[in-house]
Write a structure and sequence with these properties.
The complex is a heterodimer of chains A (about 400) and B (about 475). Chain A is an alpha+beta fold. Helix content of chain A is about 20%, strand content about 35%. Chain A has eight helices and 21 strands. Chain B is an all-alpha fold. Classes of the chains: A alpha+beta (about 400), B mainly alpha (about 475).
Chain lengths: ~400, ~475
């Protein structure tokens, strides 16, 4: 019976307003302001509605519904409630119905989006790849877990495993081939080919190039000849779909175990992506993939910087294409001197919130980079194979 | 001129793309374009299986191409690979979250897997993007129907039709809902409307054929489904429907051929395998019946609803196998009790083997209601003389209208319309509202050449029973009568 009522409510709320009600409905409206359409929701999340009523006392109540079930009835402003959307990302229909004291109602609906959060090997175990550099920006080697503290939302954690990571890495080499890259192309080809040469036989990479379209030029392989052929074949044309290119790289790396990285080169801001920046940042938070962003020439630094730092990677900015070879070398060097760190989290609330992570060095002269956090999803605390 | 300039621009752009890119990157771009075209062409001729590989390759190369992922999803859904279709649609919707059709397609893929919770948000979103969008309302209606909220479903279907009077899927889905609910008149009306607004709409023709089959209009059913097959030769559903129509007519060989034709298109089609299992069951080959179902159940693409249906069908066949073996052994060993004989007779009748059912029940020396059943088995076995003798005996012992009707029907099948007429008139004397007596009397009067009296009786029948399969048949007979046929 309840389900039938709910369905009828769906029906009513999607129906156009009857003409005789139009006058009364004028100036009487509701809009869900949080969550926003296509946002993803996890755990306890606030639902907020903005109510407009020319005569405030005309408002009888606001009903909040999730998946056609009434979850809260609010009779006074602010019109909001908190709902637990669980720890598994799903698409939800969230509805807010504003009832006039004379009985009629108006409503708004928001549909949230499902996201994929990296699948994880071991429950409640957080895995991080940590880069440590000294004052001269050189990687620091031969460290032990005693050199570090790990904080989760400010709470210290006990490190379980710590070692220099020498297992294979899987990489996406993402190259901007928009029209503005034309002059730089020969040096890009050379620098990227040089980077490919630094891969060890057990490492794998794929190559994506993007202008306004995004193409997979080379599927995942260890074959350096194929990779070099791919990175050397890109040609400049069209506009820049940077975010689409990054999203494609994330998709291609999804489901692969172990350490993963995206090495992205671009010379400009996004001009033609179908996906928005927020969507890419969300991906960066949800997946355990290190992002190394290389900005060539006049680029908006904040985007590459935020994306890289969120993931524990790094952003580089160079003025000339001739400097690219050096940057690629630095990235290769850093990837070879990264540490694998794991700890059993003290977190017991798996409610989908984003838990902030901080890895600190006990030596103030060292700078430490690692992922900035993870979504508190059961079994979602870290990614990668545990050491044998 | 403006068009020419635009065309020239396109030409130049295309040429530039070809000239500028060289080597591997260029080859990938060319291949992705070619594969997408190949896949879309195959999809458009409903050859989903052929469409999938090129679309998979195109999507794997062209990573932000909405059409590649959307068409891939559509082709996968066409091949019942709904879980994979969902993944393709997910990427398509990442690239274009506000694409109306992609949202509806995603809803459809979830709904086909029986997951109404996942399906609903996509229809709601499509409805929000375009209020009163018929496809979104139609999707929500199917969600409501899947949640057993029939009234809400009907209201939503009607809203979809009010929004777009030419939207054939809503007529079809609502018609199908009525068909499942046994409201055959309403179903036919809507399904006829579906194929009127879109004469080439295969699913509409398919369901209309099913409705005709249920009404007993075998010729219409077969003709309609053949048209659907002609329009969509690669769609196994139409072959299944033809199989079901033929099975309903008791034409096992034809039904079997049609189910096999469906299996040639989709080796694990759950309805085709279920149909073949039913044929095997009727033939008493339970092992083969179970094997057919197991093939469908082993298919990873199987949807939840089909799995439930086939699992129940399998359990029923398995139970029947055990029961039949025990009863057969008792009969063969001469130890069968009258109850065993009656039970085995019922089982044989259920398989459509009425001759053996009659023989078995006769051996049980039935009394009372069981004698009526024996007469029925005899009638269904085509042993009309024996059936008449038994019905006449039962009717004289107990003057009931239904017994007189059955006696009349037996006499009619023996070709003795005069005596049949008398039997039906006797039935009406006992119960003037007996529907079959009226209908059969009218049929007999037609055969006796008294069209005017027949027309009058048919009209009386229609007045008393204006709905249902028989009413529909009567309307057709009356429509075929010469205009001046009046009492």
């Amino acid at each position: 019976m309840r389900a039938i009522l709910a369905a009828l409510l769906v029906l009513a709320s999607m129906a156009p307003a009857a003409a005789q009600d139009a006058e009364k409905r004028r100036g009487f409206s509701i809009r869900i302001v949080a969550p926003t359409p296509d946002e993803f929701v996890l755990g306890r999340t606030k639902i907020q509605a903005e109510v407009r009523a020319e005569v405030p006392s005309d408002v009888d109540r606001v009903e909040f519904l999730v998946r056609d079930k009434v979850i809260f009835v609010d009779r006074e402003p602010p019109y909001e409630c908190v709902h637990d959307f669980g720890e598994e990302s799903k698409a939800f229909v969230i509805r807010a119905v504003l009832y006039h004291r004379e009985g009629f109602s108006v409503s708004d609906v928001v549909v949230t989006r499902k996201i994929t959060i990296e699948a994880f090997e071991e429950v409640n175990r957080v895995i991080l790849w940590v880069t440590v550099s000294d004052k001269t920006d050189s990687p620091v080697g031969e460290l032990s877990k005693d050199n570090f503290t790990v904080l989760e939302d400010g709470v210290p954690q006990t490190i379980r495993d710590f070692m220099l990571e020498d297992r294979p890495i899987t990489m996406a080499i993402v190259l901007d081939s928009s029209g503005s890259m034309r002059d730089a192309m020969p040096e890009v080809h050379q620098a990227a080919a040089g980077f490919v040469e630094t891969l060890r036989p057990q490492d794998k990479a794929l190559v994506i190039d993007f202008d306004d379209k995004v193409f997979l030029i080379q599927e995942l392989t260890s074959d350096q000849a194929l990779l070099k052929e791919a990175v050397s074949s890109t040609e400049a044309l069209g506009s820049t779909a940077l975010y689409d290119g990054l999203h494609a790289a994330y998709r291609k790396l999804r489901g692969i175990e172990g350490r993963k990285a995206i090495v992205l080169l671009s010379d400009g801001d996004d001009t033609s992506s179908q996906l928005a920046y927020d969507r890419i940042l969300e991906e960066a938070k949800a997946q355990s993939v290190l992002v190394y962003g290389i900005g060539l020439g006049e680029v908006r630094k904040s985007v590459l910087k935020e994306l890289s730092e969120t993931t524990g990677g790094r952003a580089f900015f160079v003025a000339k294409a001739s400097q690219l070879a050096d940057v690629y070398r630095k990235i290769a060097d850093e990837l070879r001197r990264q540490y694998y760190l794991s700890y059993s989290t003290t977190n017991t609330k798996w409610d989908g919130r984003f838990i902030k992570l901080e890895v600190k060095s006990k030596n103030p002269e060292w700078s430490v980079r690692a992922r900035r956090g993870y979504f508190a999803v059961r079994g979602g605390a870290g990614s990668g194979a545990a050491p044998k | 001129m403006r068009h020419v300039a635009f065309a020239l621009t396109l030409l130049i752009a295309a040429t530039a793309a070809t000239v500028t890119h060289a080597g591997k990157a260029n080859q990938v771009r060319k291949d992705a374009f070619r594969l997408l075209n190949e896949g879309v062409a195959a999809y458009n001729r409903a050859d989903y299986r052929a469409a999938i590989p090129p679309l998979q390759k195109a999507a794997a190369m062209s990573l932000n191409s909405f059409p590649s992922y959307h068409y891939l999803g559509l082709a996968l859904a066409g091949d019942r690979r709904y879980a994979e279709a969902v993944e393709a649609y997910r990427i398509a919707l990442d690239l274009d979250p506000d694409h109306l059709q992609a949202n509806v397609s995603m809803g459809d893929a979830w709904l086909a897997q029986g997951d109404t919770d996942e399906a609903q948000p996509y229809y709601v979103k499509a409805g929000k993007l375009r209020p009163e969008y018929a496809a979104a309302l139609d999707g929500l209606a199917r969600v409501a129907e899947a949640q057993a909220q029939e009234d809400a479903a009907i209201a939503l279907f009607e809203r979809a039709l009010a929004s777009d009077k030419g939207y054939a899927p809503a007529y079809t889905h609502l018609g199908d809902l009525y068909l499942r609910a046994g409201k055959l008149d309403e179903a036919v009306k809507l399904l006829v409307e579906a194929v009127s607004v879109r004469p080439d709409f295969g699913p509409g023709l398919d369901r209309l054929a099913a409705a005709y089959g249920r009404l007993g209009f075998s010729n219409e059913a077969v003709a309609t489904i053949r048209k659907a097959i002609e329009l969509e030769p690669n769609n196994p559903e139409h072959r299944v429907t033809l199989g079901e129509v033929l099975l309903g007519m008791g034409v096992l060989v034809g039904a079997e051929a049609s189910f096999q034709a469906a299996i040639a298109i989709d080796a694990a089609d759950p309805k085709a395998r279920g149909g073949l299992a039913e044929i095997d069951r009727r033939r008493g080959d339970y092992g083969a019946a179970l094997a057919e179902i197991d093939v469908a159940l082993a298919d990873p693409r199987i949807d939840r609803r089909s799995r439930d249906t086939l699992t129940k069908q399998r359990a029923a066949i398995d139970a029947e196998r055990g029961r039949a073996a025990t009863l057969d052994a008792a009969v063969a060993g001469g130890s069968a009790t009258p109850a065993d004989l009656t039970a085995l007779a019922a089982l044989e009748a259920d398989r459509g083997r009425f001759d053996r059912a009659a023989d078995l029940l006769a051996q049980a020396a039935p009394q009372g209601a069981s004698r009526e059943r024996l007469a029925f088995y005899m009638f269904r076995a085509g042993r009309f003389r024996e059936a008449h003798a038994l019905y006449a005996e039962l009717a004289s012992a107990s003057p009931r209208a239904d017994l007189a009707v059955n006696d009349g029907a037996s006499l009619a099948r023996l070709g003795d319309d005069a005596k049949a007429k008398a039997a039906f008139e006797r039935a009406l004397a006992i119960d003037p509202d007996q529907p079959l007596a009226k209908l059969y009397l009218a049929n007999t009067l037609m055969r006796l050449g008294d069209s005017a009296a027949a027309a009058s009786t048919y009209r009386a029948f229609l007045t008393a029973y204006p709905t249902g399969a028989q009413a529909e048949q009567v309307r057709r007979i009356l429509a075929a009568l010469p205009p001046g046929t009046t009492p």
